[in-house]
Each structure stands twice: as structure tokens, then as C-alpha cells.
Specification:
290 residues; alpha/beta; seven-stranded parallel beta sheet; 12 strands; 42% helix; globular; binds NADP nicotinamide-adenine-dinucleotide phosphate
Length: 290
């Protein structure tokens, strides 16, 4: 059995569908089985569990040969944070996998680093370190930003005005990847055990600024007018003022500032040279969320 933690999410649902289509026995770990079932094809097994609670992982782990972690706590509220989910939760999954002798495929982010300004990137780095130091056979799949997530944000913020909201100046080139390409890499990582001990990086063929992506979103829908901006100063104020009272919004502001100012382009050519089967699809800003 392949246990997919995060199998109810944007990436996870594609991974689950592809694994099931390839004939694998798939079980999805979720905090909300009823919601997960609505997002998954009939017949996919669903197990109740929370990566923050190690005890809850024991039962879902029965018969598991590979654990996929496609969870994150970036957008969570309350106790759901990058520290509790991406760092500690992944450690709990790793320990549970080790107990049953399963392999681990960890989904992480391109640019994960211990000193990164975004907590998510620091916590992903910490999870990667734990996985790599363990005795569990592992593969890490690092991805750049999901295009579909950002297209959805731009469409939603445009509302009826047709003018998306761009966080910051929107002039910084960012690598956006089609989520189906990431799913294909995760599925390959599950199936191809020669990839154990490997970090796979998946990115898209283009680096686009948020303004360019917003323009593509508008063109695809026949919208016009300049995008609306949340100025960097406002983002900075939000990141400080909301830190204690609304951590999720503060995290979003920090992320927006980082994406607006840090170099986040990515060149997928060396990863594709090493792994020519990696897909690299152009961003389709006209597509709805997958
Ligand atoms: N979005 C991006 O731009 C991006 C870029 C690079 C890498 N990634 C990585 O790709 C993976 C998938 O991201 P996504 O955007 O597809 O995610 P998503 O749609 O937001 O879904 C998040 C998933 O995490 C699960 N989850 C969260 N907290 C959990 C907990 N405490 N216990 C168990 N499950 C928990 C949720 O399951 P339930 O709600 O059903 O419990 C859900 O399936 C993540 O590892 C993310 O860090 C994302």
C-alpha cells in the first residue's frame, strides 16, 4: 500500500489518481475523511490521521511500503503551521515509516534552506535533513511555485473587476511549474526505487513576474486594465503587525515580500539533463484550477 499524506490536496489528488491508474493500492491520510472522499475517485481508501499526532499514524501505516508526504502547514490556522506540519509532522511520518520498513517520498520546495526568510522553506529544509539522515530509503521532490495556485489567486482577487491583485511590485521573475508535472515526478519517485537517495527538482520552462502572469490571466479571459497592487510597505507592516494575532496572514505577507524581492527564478535544464523524463509544461494561465 502507498500512503499519501496530503492526498486530498491540489498536488496529492493528482498523485493519487496517477498511482491508482498505474494499478497501485493507494491510501490517503487525511484529517477529514468526508472532505477527502469528495475530492477523490470512488474506491480510493481514506484513513483518518494527523501528521502532528504520531499516535494517529499507527493504524493508517498498516501494510504500507511507501509513504508520500505532500502536506504543508503554510496556510493553516491555529496549531497548523510550517513548524508543526512540515518539520514535526514530517518527522512523525518518517518515524512511522521506519517502524514498518517503508520508503519515504518527501515533497519539498526549490530553495529550501536553513536561513530562508520564509518559515515554510526553513521547515522543509529541516524535514529534508531528517529524511536524509535517517535509515529510511528516501527520495525528495523539490518543486517551484505551482502555477495553478497563483492563477487561482489572481483570478479570485480580480473578482468582477478583471484586475488581479499583485502582492508587491510584481517585477521579480519567479519560476512557476504546472502541478501535473510535479505529480508525474512524485509518481515516478514512488515507482522507481533507483531514485532512492536522490533529490529531484521540478520547475517550469519559464520565469515570469507576477505582473506577467496577471497579464496572461487577463488575456486568457478578455480582461483589461492594470493589476492592482498591495505595496511592499503595506506587506511589511502586515508581516509585523499580524505576527502575534493572525499568524497565517503574517506568513502570507512574509511570503509575498520574499517572492517580490528575492531571486526565485529557476532553470530546469540541469535537472532535465539528469532526468530526461521530467515533464516541463508551459504555464497555461487560461486553465482553471486543477
Ligand atoms: N503550492 C505551491 O506552490 C507549492 C510549491 C512547492 C511545493 N509545494 C508542496 O507541495 C505539496 C502539496 O501542496 P498543495 O499546494 O497541493 O497542498 P494543498 O492543496 O494546500 O493541500 C494540503 C494538504 O496537506 C494536508 N495536511 C495539512 N495539514 C495536515 C496534517 N496536520 N495532517 C495531515 N494532513 C495534513 C491536507 O490534508 P487534509 O486537509 O485532508 O487533512 C491537504 O491534503 C506540499 O508539500 C507543499 O509544500 C507546494
Amino acid at each position: 500500500v502507498i500512503l499519501v499524506a496530503g492526498g486530498s490536496g491540489r498536488l496529492g489528488t493528482l498523485v493519487v489518481a496517477d498511482l491508482a491508474a498505474a494499478g497501485a493500492d493507494v491510501r490517503v491520510l487525511t484529517r477529514s475523511p468526508a472532505c477527502a472522499r469528495r475530492r477523490l475517485a470512488a474506491g480510493i481508501e481514506v484513513a483518518l490521521g494527523d501528521v502532528r499526532d504520531p499516535v494517529s499514524l499507527a493504524e493508517p501505516m498498516a501494510g504500507v511500503t511507501t509513504v508520500v508526504s505532500a502536506v504543508h502547514g503554510f496556510d493553516g490556522t491555529g496549531g497548523v503551521t510550517p513548524a508543526s506540519v512540515d518539520r514535526d509532522g514530517n518527522r512523525h511520518l518518517l518515524a512511522a515509516a521506519s517502524r514498518v520498513g517503508a520508503d519515504v517520498v518527501l515533497v519539498s520546495v526549490v530553495g529550501a534552506a536553513p536561513q530562508h526568510p520564509m518559515e515554510l522553506f526553513r521547515m522543509k529544509w529541516s524535514a529534508e535533513q531528517a529524511v536524509m539522515a535517517s535509515c529510511v530509503p528516501w527520495t525528495v521532490v523539490r518543486s517551484s511555485a505551482f502555477a495553478e495556485t497563483w492563477v487561482e489567486i489572481l483570478v479570485e482577487t480580480a473578482g468582477r473587476s478583471g484586475r488581479p491583485v499583485v502582492f508587491g511590485r510584481g517585477q521579480n521573475p519567479i519560476n512557476f511549474v504546472a502541478v501535473k508535472d510535479v505529480a508525474a515526478a512524485v509518481v515516478r519517485a514512488v515507482m522507481d526505487t533507483s531514485l532512492r537517495g536522490t533529490v529531484l527538482e521540478v520547475g517550469g520552462p519559464e520565469n515570469l513576474t507576477l505582473c506577467e502572469l496577471a497579464r496572461r490571466v487577463q488575456q486568457a479571459r478578455g480582461w483589461s486594465g492594470p493589476p492592482r497592487h498591495v505595496p511592499p510597505l503595506a506587506l511589511r507592516a502586515m508581516s509585523v503587525m499580524l505576527a502575534g494575532i493572525h499568524p497565517r496572514s503574517a506568513r502570507r505577507a512574509v511570503a509575498a515580500l520574499a517572492m517580490d524581492s528575492m531571486p526565485v527564478p529557476y532553470d530546469p535544464s540541469s535537472a532535465r539533463q539528469a532526468h530526461p523524463w521530467l515533464s516541463c509544461t508551459r504555464v497555461r494561465a487560461g486553465a482553471g484550477p486543477t
